[in-house]
Every structure is written in structure tokens, then in C-alpha cells.
């Protein structure tokens, strides 16, 4: 009988996993013993890190798009559709375009993050973001013509995609404005919800002196409660008001409703064993990337490493062997510290990060990785 | 863990979450609570013992009680 694996979500985690399974289980797939389906709600795979560069006029959103079908091994069935129902007791999913439920033997949820700016009154109208394609393009229109005033970067919600990106944005904006001779006419303020500038204390300790050196104002314990677009003010739960001329916000993030409806976790994040990535509430269900509530950053490198673990575990289970692969929390991250310098961090559940001194070489390494990312998606790198 | 007689409207179980997850979970629950409601946070991160009082001090909310247990702590926060 054919073992059916359904992977939901064609981002980094889902795409790398689909290719990993095609590689590991090629013979079984060719023999008709295993079927791997990758379901995505659109035909494209999107590499979101490109959006960081869009507001500065350095990249185009199209640079981060490829047809999923071109990235995924031919042995994987790519289905452009939306899963509307998950029944983990019956081991079934239902698709929007197909009335009958589909049985699965293994289900992997890699559905990622969605943005929820509507949770903060006024944010959608008054704030910009670079966490969506349309947001990055709209911010580009504002930023390219912004020559004076107060630029506020507010981290409204955590967890959010790429925890380094808010720091990167203010470092890049600072450098970019200096290069253009505008920095003296632009004040920059960075806000963060807790008492330091980043969730990870080691990264916070590294970043804070850089921000002070570069005259980036910091407001910690700032949990945005509302935005008044007409007055140009963002107000925190802690009672602080900040006037802005250009507000760039990291909106609250959520997973998809389907996960909560299926009883797999709150806010769209699946409760998993942080080593095996198996759902706590259901058998033969895995989650990876942003979708898995592991406490590690919502980052592409995390999804990449987790995909290898889930691929190994599912292949072992299908072959009737004990699944021994585990995820150790490994995270790799380049951190832009300007327009031509970057740092790099590597850490896991046991070892904390120790950011490398910023250098031009690391900046070019990041840009080189951005170009070679498509090899990662194909499962080659 | 000793027990208070405070009846929370909401309990946020952040046991197992890495820092700053518990504090952010608390802030999220307080954000959605009615004025006067008590939110209980369960956390097994030692850092919450400083994070939570520091955040409450920054706000008009009130930390009614902290129960320190062997494997986790409970914080009772009343929304202003």
C-alpha cells in the first residue's frame, strides 16, 4: 500500500523537505510505494529576505520569486491549493478545490507566518513594513523620498520572522542616510517590547553599543498599543508616546487558523517536541519552520535544518526503522550592520550566539548566499 | 508552591518557552484583558523573576503576587 506524505506550505521548510524526501525515498517513490505531495496556496516560492533590500531600492520583489514547480523534484506532486480542514484522528486533510477528504500517513505543517497588523488600532493605516511584498514596495516609495524627520522602527510583535531584520533595517537606514548626506536631518528611533534591544541577550549586548555609537535612539519596554496616523503618533501600553514622520513596524505575527482549529496549538503555532519536531497533540504529524513552536528564531536556516531532520525521521519510519534524527536548535544568521558590512551568528539550544565583528566580507557573503539560496530550496546546498 | 486565593481570569502557561517568550505571552494576555482582570503567568524560566516585575513597574498594571515553585513560578498581574 502506498504511504502518503503531505507537506503543507511551499516556503523554505516545505520546499527543502519535499526535495529531501524525493532524494531519500526516490526508489520507493519510483516504485509507487511512497507518494509525496507538496501543497501551497500559490504557484510561487518566495524568498522573503529579499524584501529587506527593496525599500532601499537595491532589489526587486521579483528577485525573491521562483515557480515552485521549477524548484521541486519531479517525483514530488505539487498541488496549488489550500488545505481547509485537518482531521488528525482520521488522518485526513481536505483541500479547497476537492470535496473529498484525502488520507495521509504523514502530515508536515510548514505553513509559516502571517501578518496581523489589524491587532493594533491604526497600525495598518499609519505604519509601513518590509515583511510583505506589498509592504516593502510601499515603504520604498516613502523611504526613497524621505529626506528629513523622525524615522521610527517599532518591533510590535514577537515572535516575528527573522529576529535580526529590525536591527538590520535601522543599521542600513543609518548608513544609507549618511551616504546620502541626510543623516543629520533624520532622527532614528528603535523600539523593542522588552528591556533590551533584542530577544536574545547576547545579540542585544552586541547590538546596543553599535546603536549608541550611531546615534540610533532606543526605547525599550515599548509595547505598541495604538497608532494615530493623523497625529503621527505611536503609543505604548507602558504609556509612552512617540511622534513619527515615517513609521516602520514589525507587525504582530500569527500562524494560520487551521492549526488552532485542528487542536494542534495556539495562535497558529504547532506545539511540538523541540528535538523531534513531532506534534504533541497528534500522531504522525510534524511541524517545522515558523509553524513549530520551538522557541528558536523564525528563520530560513532553522527551517532548512529542521527539514533535514523531518526528512530523515519520515524516511526511517516509512522503512520501518527507528527514527533517530533530532534537531539541536541550530540557527545561522547573517546580520547586516550597514550597506556594506555585516556580522554573522551561529547558535543552538546549548550554545549561545557570539556575533562576529562586522566586515565587508560578511556582507558579501550574505549577498552571495542570497543569490545561491535557490540551491538551498532545490535541496542542493 | 504555596497557593494564593487570587482567582485569575486568564492563565498563560509559558512553561517550556525560552526567554523572552513568557514575558511576551504575559504582555499579549494583558493586552487582551479587561481592566481589573487578573492574568496568571506560569513560567519555568528563572529570568521571568526579574523580567515580569521590571515590566510591571514600567506600566500601570500591578503584580499582585509571585509564587516561586521548584519547577516553575506563577505571577499574578492585575490589568490597570
UniProtKB/TrEMBL annotation, chain A:
Classify the source by domain of life. Answer: Archaea
- The segment(s) forming the FAD/NAD(P)-binding domain are 4-307
For molecular function, the Gene Ontology terms on record are: oxidoreductase activity
Q: What is one Pfam family matched by this protein?
A: Pyr_redox_2
User: Can you name this protein?
Assistant: NAD(P)/FAD-dependent oxidoreductase
InterPro entries documented for this protein: FAD/NAD-bd_sf, FAD/NAD-binding_dom, SQRD
Under Gene3D superfamilies, the record lists: FAD/NAD(P)-binding domain
Q: Which organism is this entry from?
A: Halosimplex litoreum
UniProtKB/TrEMBL annotation, chain B:
CDD domains assigned to the protein according to its UniProt record, in alphabetical order = SirA_YedF_YeeD
Signal peptide extent: none
- Domain named UPF0033 is located at 12-36
Q: Which GO terms describe its molecular function?
A: transferase activity
Q: Which SUPFAM superfamilies match?
A: SirA-like
> What UniProt keywords apply to this chain's record, in alphabetical order?
Transferase
- Top-level taxon of the source organism: Archaea
Among PANTHER family, the record links this protein to:
SULFUR CARRIER PROTEIN TUSA (PTHR33279:SF2), SULFUR CARRIER PROTEIN YEDF-RELATED (PTHR33279)
For this entry, the protein name equals Sulfurtransferase TusA family protein
Native source organism of the sequence: Halosimplex litoreum
Q: Taxonomic lineage of this organism?
A: Archaea, Methanobacteriati, Methanobacteriota, Stenosarchaea group, Halobacteria
Amino acid at each position: 500500500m502506498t504511504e502518503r506524505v503531505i507537506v503543507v506550505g511551499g516556503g523554505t521548510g516545505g520546499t527543502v523537505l519535499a526535495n529531501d524526501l524525493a532524494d531519500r525515498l526516490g526508489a520507493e517513490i519510483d516504485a509507487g510505494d511512497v507518494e509525496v505531495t507538496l501543497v501551497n496556496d500559490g504557484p510561487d516560492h518566495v524568498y522573503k529576505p529579499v524584501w529587506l533590500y527593496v525599500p532601499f531600492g537595491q532589489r526587486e520583489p521579483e528577485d525573491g520569486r521562483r515557480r515552485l514547480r521549477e524548484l521541486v523534484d519531479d517525483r514530488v506532486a505539487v498541488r496549488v491549493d489550500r488545505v481547509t480542514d485537518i482531521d488528525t484522528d482520521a488522518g485526513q486533510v481536505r483541500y479547497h478545490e476537492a470535496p473529498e477528504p484525502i488520507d495521509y500517513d504523514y502530515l508536515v505543517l510548514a505553513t509559516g507566518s502571517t501578518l496581523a497588523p489589524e491587532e493594533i488600532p491604526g497600525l495598518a493605516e499609519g505604519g509601513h513594513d518590509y515583511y510583505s511584498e506589498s509592504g516593502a514596495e510601499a515603504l520604498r516609495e516613502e523611504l526613497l523620498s524621505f529626506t528629513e524627520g523622525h524615522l521610527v522602527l517599532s518591533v510590535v510583535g514577537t515572535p516575528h520572522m527573522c529576529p535580526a531584520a529590525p536591527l538590520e533595517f535601522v543599521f542600513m537606514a543609518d548608513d544609507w542616510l549618511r551616504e546620502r548626506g541626510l543623516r543629520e536631518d533624520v532622527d532614528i528611533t528603535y523600539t523593542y517590547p522588552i528591556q533590551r534591544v533584542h530577544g536574545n541577550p547576547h545579540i542585544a549586548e552586541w547590538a546596543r553599543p553599535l546603536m549608541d555609537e550611531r546615534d540610533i535612539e532606543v526605547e525599550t519596554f515599548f509595547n505598541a498599543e495604538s497608532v494615530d496616523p493623523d497625529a503621527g503618533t505611536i503609543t505604548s501600553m507602558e504609556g509612552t508616546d512617540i511622534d513619527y514622520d515615517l513609521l516602520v513596524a514589525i507587525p504582530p505575527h500569527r500562524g494560520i487558523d487551521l492549526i488552532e482549529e485542528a487542536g494542534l496549538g495556539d495562535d497558529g503555532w504547532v506545539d511540538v517536541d523541540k528535538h523531534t519536531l513531532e506534534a504533541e497533540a497528534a500522531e504522525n504529524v510534524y511541524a517545522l519552520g515558523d509553524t513549530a513552536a520551538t522557541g528558536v528564531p523564525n528563520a530560513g536556516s532553522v527551517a532548512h535544518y529542521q527539514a533535514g531532520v523531518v526528512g530523515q525521521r519520515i524516511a526511517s519510519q516509512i522503512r520501518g526503522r527507528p527514527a533517530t534524527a533530532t534537531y539541536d536548535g541550530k540557527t545561522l544568521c547573517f546580520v547586516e550592520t550597514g550597506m556594506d558590512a555585516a556580522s554573522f551568528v551561529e547558535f543552538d539550544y546549548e550554545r549561545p550566539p557570539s556575533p562576529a565583528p562586522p566586515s565587508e566580507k560578511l556582507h558579501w557573503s550574505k549577498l552571495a548566499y542570497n543569490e545561491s539560496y535557490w540551491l538551498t530550496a532545490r535541496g542542493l546546498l | 508552591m504555596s497557593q494564593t486565593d487570587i482567582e485569575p481570569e486568564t492563565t498563560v502557561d509559558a512553561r517550556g518557552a525560552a526567554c523572552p517568550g513568557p514575558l511576551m505571552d504575559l504582555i499579549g494576555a494583558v493586552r487582551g484583558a479587561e481592566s481589573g482582570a487578573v492574568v496568571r503567568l506560569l513560567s519555568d524560566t528563572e529570568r521571568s523573576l526579574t523580567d515580569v516585575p521590571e515590566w510591571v513597574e514600567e506600566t500601570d498594571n500591578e503584580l499582585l503576587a509571585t509564587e516561586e515553585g521548584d519547577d516553575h513560578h506563577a505571577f499574578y498581574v492585575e490589568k490597570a
